[in-house]
Amino acid sequence: MRRSVQVATAVAGLALLAACANTTDDPPAGPTEGTSAPVTEAPTDEPTTTSPTDDDDGPVAAPAEETNEPAEDVTYSTEPQNDPDWPGSGGDLLPTGVRVGAHEGYERVVFDFQGSETPGWRVEYVDAAIEEGRGQEVDLDGDAILQVIATGVRYPEEAETDLLAQGSFDTEQTDLVDEVFVTGIFEGQNQAFIGLDEQVPFRVFTLTDPSRLVVDLQLGES
């Protein structure tokens, strides 16, 4: 009789231990086959030139609202112009935006850059918009073509390609400037073309915080 009680007690104890073992926290189960876990996308920087045109041909250059004036020795001319250190060297700048605006006496094209340095530059009228590297001619709106070369730029990382300002930018705020086309980065230089109704005097200067390259096109007297 006593032996039967001891056996029953031992069996009950083993059952209790088994029950306690089953109450431990199991790791959460992963998604079953055929299902996927929800994905949260990280926010991205908003580019400065993403407004589509009415006919969805491409982005429209955002307004250039700067009213900054250059130094007194920066004057208008139709002759080729470049910064004193041209052609300069490589840098940390990434071209990220194109903006166009109309002001009293001139229209302005601003090229935005991400980075801490100041771009070098050369701006001049050319007979045709020929893309560096590939040698192909760009079909650009306008009767006059102003080429803009910026130096001190770098190639983007894989995660930065969506930030690049590249391709055609239509203009809605200006009469003289018809189109801006950015061909992109080639051998440390960023090439762009400004299509104009006619050749006019221009001036070029840079601004900082953030880095910008500014091209002003002088308007004739009406």
UniProtKB/TrEMBL annotation:
Sections of the chain in a coiled coil: none
Keywords of this entry: Signal
Taxonomic superkingdom: Bacteria
Region (Disordered): 22-95
KW Nucleus (keyword) present: no
Signal peptide start and end residues: 1-21
Segments of skewed composition (Low complexity): 37-52
Family matches, as Pfam families: AMIN-like
Boundaries of every AMIN-like domain copy: 95-218
Name of the protein in its database record: AMIN-like domain-containing protein
